[in-house]
Amino acid sequence: MGCIARMASRDTAGRDKGMSTAKSAKHDWDRFTSMKQRGEWVELQFMAEAARRRLAVSKPWGDMQAYDVGIEHGSNFLRVQVKSTTYRVSAGYLCQFKPNHLKKCDYSLKEIDVFAAYVIPEDAWYLIPAVLLLGKRRLTTAMLSPVVPPKKKACYRYECYREAWGLFTKSRAELRCYHN
After folding, report:
1. In which residue ranges of the chain is pLDDT below 70?
2. Beta partners for 126?
3. What does the buried/exposed string (b/e) look like for 166-176 if buried means 16 or more CB atoms within 10 Å of the residue's CB?
């Protein structure tokens, strides 16, 4: 595994305790000193997983773009906003799909094609067309990764997008045709 998908872990004295991979690091999320640091780590996890699946990955310079990662497949270039959650609520995990509180503008379909949401404790990726969250009815949160069968199936409507890496073979126009 390349260094992009590894995270150094240190003891309380700051000494390097070795490296852990994404699979074994799923319990290490509380070691990050800020949400920004965790977000950067999750972006690296996404890029490593996409590269492992033979997708061409690019990262825009700086934080000025609304998207975090670009995915190129054939003549398609899709803009991906990466999110993560560890917040367990009832039978699943609640993920927020809104910009961080310092950004003034909301996301738009002119800027993002796909949301990639990582449920860290479950080591699960949800690849959701942006039109489903930013379309006619703007959704800022979604329940993901049920740990027990849900009482209301509609609560977990994005289960069909769990590990849906095939979405990256679609064009922007094809992704805009998805609906809830």
Report:
1. 1-29, 101-104, 150, 152-155, 180
2. 117, 162
3. ebbebebeebe
Q: Which domains does the chain have, with CATH numbers?
A: 55-176 (3.40.1350.10)
DSSP tally for the chain: helices H, then strands E? 3, 10
* Helix, strand, coil tally for the chain in percent (to 5): 30, 30, 40
Identify the pLDDT of residue 167.
96
Tell me what pLDDT residue 9 has.
Answer: 40
- Residue 27: the pLDDT is 64
Closest residue by Cα to residue 43 from 59, 29, 28: 59
* Tokens matching residue 86: 């560890």
- Sheet of strand 88-89, all strands in order from the earlier edge strand to the far edge: 88-89, 92-96, 141-144
